[in-house]
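hey so i finally got around to running both of the ones u sent me last week. sorry it took forever, my laptop kept dying halfway thru and i had to restart like 3 times lol. anyway pasting them below in the order u listed, first the sequence line then the structure token line for each. didnt double check formatting much so if smth looks off just lmk and ill redo it

first one:
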Amino acid sequence: MISPAMKIAITGTHPSGKSTFLQSLEQELNDMGLRIHRIGDFAPRAQGLGFPILTQHTYESTLWIMAECLRCEAEASLQNDVILVDRPVIDALGYLHAALQVSVRTIDSRRSGELMTIVKADIPDYDILIRTAVDTDIAVGEGRDSDAAFRVEAASSIERLVNQIEPKALILTSGNRDKIVERVLESVRSRLLTLRPQ
């Protein structure tokens, strides 16, 4: 195994093409013979435990999602060449900001600062961060949250955080998926494959 694992994260609201992008990227990476681990959306698991999500997100639900994401990333780094993170910790904070905005709530500054500190410390660990641009013309799939106003607010909150913390993040749109996939693959080849023992 090549160490350390390369970490690629994609952030953004739903639906914005994250899953389709990751499927394409994962197939290409598998074809390169790399060990891939994909970390998914933690919100359904949080909800299953009883944490409020979406417009009712709280400090506690956000902190649990962040901690679980970080735990899974750390474990995945032990056995894999590339870790694909669908919704890194910055998403959890973006969704909390959106939830507080639409539900007219606040949390105290200490807790807010704590969550921001976690995000600022975590984002530099990603070799590549990709932010999706939400397309409101894309229909929300069955079983997904259909609150369009909240989806737009969440997208805006995530965009503001990404611009503040990692302004050089790649931007994925509905029209440039193949180009972004290729850019990521070039980075992987440069970073990982040149380190393989001959």
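and the second one:
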Amino acid sequence: MKTFNAILSLFLITALVYYSFYGLMPRYDESKTPAPTEFSVDKALTPLEEIAKQPHYLGSKGHEDVRKFLISELYKLGMEPHIQEGFSLNPESKTLNKPINIAARIKGSQDGKSLLLLSHYDSALVPSYGAADAGTGLVAILESVRAYLASGKRPQNDIIILFTDAEEIGLDGAKLFVNEHPWAENVGLVLNFEARGTSGPSNMILETNGGNSKLVKEFLAANPDFPVASSLMYSVYKMLPNDTDSTIFRKDGDIDSFFFAFIDSHFNYHTANDNMYFLDWNSLMHQGSYLLPLIHYFADADLSNLKSDTDHVYLNFPLVKMISYPFSWILPMLIIATLVFWALIFYGIRKGKLIGKAIARGFVPFLLALISCGLIGFFGWKLLLALYPQYTEIQQGFTYNGHWYIVFFVFLSLAITFTFYKKFAIKFNEASFYVAPLFFWLLVNLAVFIILKGAAFFIIPVFFGLLSFFVMLRQERPNLLAMTFLAVPAIFIFAPLIQFFPVGLGLKMLVISCVFTVLLFGLLWPVFGYYRRKNLLATVCFLLAISFFVVAHSKSGFSEERRKPNSLVYFEDADAGKTYWLTYDTEIDTWTANYFGTSAKSASGILDEVSYSKYGTDFSFAAEAPAIEIPNFEVILEEDTLIANLRNVELSIVPKRRVNKIELYPIENIDFKYLEFNGQKASVSDTLKNYRGTKNRALINYFVSPNDSLKVKFSIEKNTPVSFKVMEYSFDLMDNPKFNITERPDFTMPKPFVITDAVLVKRTFSVDSLKMKRIDSL
């Protein structure tokens, strides 16, 4: 009977771990036809196929097509959409462009604050089809609004639908709306839909300048069916340099947001694989399961009373959906748990159930497992990068076989932990050996209270662990099934986190997965401690780990399903009269070998400035390229006047070919007194600041609208020499007839997060060398 209970408890733990993932999101059922007032994945997929037909980054032909299509879809819903167009300058990213936002409104019956539904319609600059990012957001809004209107309700609040532009290059469409659109002043809440991958559950994250308590309460009241949210994600997000359009609403307008994003299959993010084929329809369904009930609730809610000075701990949990309580409870809960812990130790020693030597011995396997598995997770990933150097081509840090590596490291950690406990555990002293895990979990929660209060829900499984500890002290051999049920909170809360960190932050976070595996094992000791065949379990876990590693190895190469990101740029140094092929790749493959061959050399020294990229990637290899005639841009001096000691200059940089981006750099450190680009005033104090610690020193990164130019206006002290360097990019290398570039093999695709497949021309000019018109006056 004991063996049967042990086996049954192990199967139950396995089932609970599986459900902790499976129960996070709804499942698409193609045989089910939703009612007209319900969200329909099938209806949402129809416009999504049109949106994701072609890349649609700002300035591309597809960009205009998607804009026209979205406007027509809004008209079909009975709205009267309009566009908002104008130059937008982001002082942080130093991006300038002319976004074209699409806005429409459902008029409410009252004069309260407006509810704004938000997503962006531009795709990433690398030829990405934008099916997930943010096509799913667009169609989730279109379909949810359709279903809401089908209910026949009239909202009390205005409902604004906003499809922003230029999100991918600086959040500039959102900045244009928040700062210049008259509707922005009355917005009370934003629901923003995003994606950072092509699959997985959608996570709810808050954007607010104050506390979150009222927002959390309102979200609970809206009662979506599959909430995936935790204050840990909220706290971590605030610490990371990640931005969405919601960030602009918070910073520039002090407007709170809920934003929703699925992040799995991160390797597809901003790539050509962000298409309909790789999109998980369950993720789209999850977005709809959020939005429709939120529209129904917030359309009639008081949106003027969402601000708060206090924060809440919150997390999703099966069956009850969400748990929430104030930050003010964190310390009392920690104190209570600590007092109960020491009281139980005192009680166990008095009853003779706890032995001092056994308690001390119990720290040995736990610490050995914790340290060993942490080191394996940290150095193991570094070793894998050395064994598989091709992984460095995937800048997101999460490889195509990343999930297999996660389970490999998890089972390897379990094998190691079972082995240590088999070696050091003493029969009939299981309760004594539970002291070490509980002690460390209390230390973890103390650190959480000091550093990361959003993770304070970690204390909840500890309370259940203390209850298990009490049962262990009362009974010689507790019922393993009962102890398994007491471990349910630990499994439901921590099992998904073991996967979440490497999925969300890259496989370099495997060390956290390994450490959390040991910590979770410790909480499950009231079950595992009574298993007699720990060696057998260690062997099974080790064999499973090896099998998962073999699977990961079999998927370590590139294929049509797992495409290798590569890059190619044609660079002309117009000043030196030299031309080069450039690449960001760490390895030359069969396609790039056509241009680099055996003559590839380090790109160091070829180009002193590299366009900003998310991961600070620099060119790796260079090779001489044939000279191709490329029309030079023209610099037109519009004004050059001297008033007292201040020289005022206005000039235009006019492209003579279809270019997508112009970067302007100062040659010297210039003390600008005034600086303006296309009518947008720039902060002179930020001119020499590098963006987010990168080496890029551009004054402005101008993403060019069709048939447009860059107008620069500045003031400096007289007799100050002024020279500029211009980097002019066109994203047409692959289809430019002058170059005749061979088609990429099916196992490759353009590298994301960098400017690739581009023609780059660098040229410097001195303002004093231009034909000047100078007017001297007092």
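quick thing i noticed on the 2nd:
The first strand starts at residue 82 and ends at 85.
anyway thats it, ttyl
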